[in-house]
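Re: that backbone. C-alpha cells:
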C-alpha cells in the first residue's frame, strides 16, 4: 500500500508540474527560497558548493541555487516533470546533473556540501530512506535542510483541508481546477482581511500569498488539494526525522508559526 501511495503521489506531482510549469515572479524568486529556509540556510550560503535538491519539480529552486553560484547541482525528480525541469533550467545545464529518480536513490558520494528539500518529505509515506540517503551523500560537515508542513498552529486549517481532500485528491485535473476556481474568491477575501486583522495564517497570507500572482496563488491552492498523501509534522517528529538518521546539531525554525524548517549536520 505504501508503494502504491508513493507512486500515485509521484504521478500526481508529475502531472501538476507539467500542467503548471511556470517559475516566474515571486513564485520562483530568491526571496521565496529564503523565506522557506531562513534563518537556517540562505541561497548565498550555496555559492561555490556542491548541492543536491530532492524533489526538484519544475526547477524553480534549482535556478535560484545555480544563480547564487553553486559549483554543481544534482536535481532529483522522479516524475514526468523532469522534461519541464530540464527546460526551465536550460541556462545552467553545464552545472546541473539531472537524476530522474526518488530521493532514496541519491548517490552515496559523500562529497556534497548541502542537500535540501522543500515541500517534498511530507508527501513521502516513509521518508526515512530519503534522509538516510542524504546523510550518505553529504561530506562530513555537510548539511541537510528540509521544509515540512507543520501541525502546530494549523488546527483550523487542517480541519478544512482534510475534509476537502477526501474529495479533491480523487478528482481528475479538470475537476480539481473547478474546485480551485470556486475557492479562489474566498481566498482573496481572506487575504484582504488579513491585511488589517490578526486572523489565523495572517502572517503567511501577507508575506507569502499576497506577493504571488493570481495564477501562482491558484496553483498553491491546487497544490494543497491535489496530493494523495500529506503528513503534518509536530516539532518532535520533525526533529526526530533527522536525528534518527545520525544528523547532529539539529536546529528547527517554526516558519510563520505553521511549518518547520529543519537543518542538521553530518558528523
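Recovered sequence:
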Amino acid at each position: 500500500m505504501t508503494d502504491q501511495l508513493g507512486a500515485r503521489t509521484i504521478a500526481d506531482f508529475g502531472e501538476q508540474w507539467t500542467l503548471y510549469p511556470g517559475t516566474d515572479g515571486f513564485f520562483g524568486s530568491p526571496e521565496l527560497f529564503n523565506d522557506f529556509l531562513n534563518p537556517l540556510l540562505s541561497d548565498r550560503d550555496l555559492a561555490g558548493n556542491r548541492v543536491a535538491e530532492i524533489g526538484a519539480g519544475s526547477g524553480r529552486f534549482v535556478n535560484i541555487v545555480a544563480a547564487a553560484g553553486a559549483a554543481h547541482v544534482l536535481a532529483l525528480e522522479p516524475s514526468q516533470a523532469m522534461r519541464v525541469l530540464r527546460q526551465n533550467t536550460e541556462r545552467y545545464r553545464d552545472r546541473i546533473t539531472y537524476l530522474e529518480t526518488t530521493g532514496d536513490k541519491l548517490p552515496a558520494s559523500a562529497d556534497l556540501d548541502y542537500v535540501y528539500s522543500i515541500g517534498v518529505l511530507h508527501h513521502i509515506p516513509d521518508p526515512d530512506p530519503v534522509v538516510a540517503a542524504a546523510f550518505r551523500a553529504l561530506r562530513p560537515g555537510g548539511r541537510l535542510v528540509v521544509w515540512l508542513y507543520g501541525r502546530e498552529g494549523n488546527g483550523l486549517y487542517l480541519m478544512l483541508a482534510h475534509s476537502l481532500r477526501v474529495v479533491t485528491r480523487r478528482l481528475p485535473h479538470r475537476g480539481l481546477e473547478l474546485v480551485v476556481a470556486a475557492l479562489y474568491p474566498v481566498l482573496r477575501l481572506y487575504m484582504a482581511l488579513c491585511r488589517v486583522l490578526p486572523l489565523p495564517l495572517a502572517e503567511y497570507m501577507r508575506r507569502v500569498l499576497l506577493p504571488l500572482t493570481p495564477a501562482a496563488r491558484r496553483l498553491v491552492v491546487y497544490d494543497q488539494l491535489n496530493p494523495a498523501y500529506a503528513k503534518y509534522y509536530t516539532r518532535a517528529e520533525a526533529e526526530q526525522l533527522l536525528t534518527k538518521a545520525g544528523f547532529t546539531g539539529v536546529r528547527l525554525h517554526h516558519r510563520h508559526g505553521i511549518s518547520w524548517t529543519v537543518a542538521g549536520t553530518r558528523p
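The mean pLDDT is 95. The CA atoms of residues 156 and 200 lie 8 Å apart.
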